[in-house]
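Usage

Read records sequentially. Each one opens with the input sequence:
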Amino acid sequence: MVLANDWKDYKILATGDGYKLEDWNGVVLCRPDPQVIWPYSGGDIKKDKRIDAIYERDPSGGGKWVSKNKKNIDEWTVNYNDLTFSLKPMGFKHTGLFPEQAANWDTMRDIVRYFKANSIIQPDKIKVLNLFAYTGGATVALAKEGVFVTHVDAAKGMVDRAKKNCILSGIGDSAVRWIVDDCKKFILREQKRVSKYDAIILDPPSYGRGPDGSLFKLEDNLFELIELATSILSDTPLFVLLNSYTTGLGASVMQNILNMCLKNKKGTTTAYELALPTLENGVILPCGNSALWTS
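and closes with the structure output:
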């Protein structure tokens, strides 16, 4: 288990009864979390007076954000060390940021710094491909190290938010190439162009459809996707990071897939559960799995 425990602007205040109570730089949100299957010890967590907004589930599916205080939370920012991100209440209970991924941001930045410190390769020579890149947490973190990132996501709105996060973090336009496209199609085009990358990040959804209506189901399509992605790695790659929030897809399964797809590369794979600390004694909140191959 790897804890993202260096946050100053984010903390989990309480958990229970299927919800987590979070403080995002002074804005308190109450959001559903399927991992929270234990009871809340303080009454009804959804009635906590600190809550600024709560995502209320709809019995028929989905849900909506409901404001509880008069605080304006249309949009605000949080900082993580030297990074700044824009947040807002979004669909499907999201805020535009997954705070547990800070642990992976730090690890990837450490890898880049190691190669720089040992004069192996300078950051501005490193090309990283970030697939299913969402609002760009990893993109911002690596671009801040001077790495050139190709950011790919099929949702234009998410790419626009990633651009905003780069601006907020003081990252110039020349540091990132922005691509709005289906990730698999983009990889296939890069194969034809014989493009190569020194590192690849993948955070595929459990289920989705491409722009042409093609179906993506993680359990059925993940191995093929990783095979395709690793085919455009450079001869001396730095790392491959695979993330998943799909229930039932264990870290060891992801580790096996990376080992199989990278069997011709010299490196080591580690697999781990990501987690966040809470202010509750003895409670750590699990938040998905990652597998990291490093050279």
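Summary fields computed downstream for this record:
- The chain has two domains: 2-74, 99-294.
- The longest strand covers residues 284-294.
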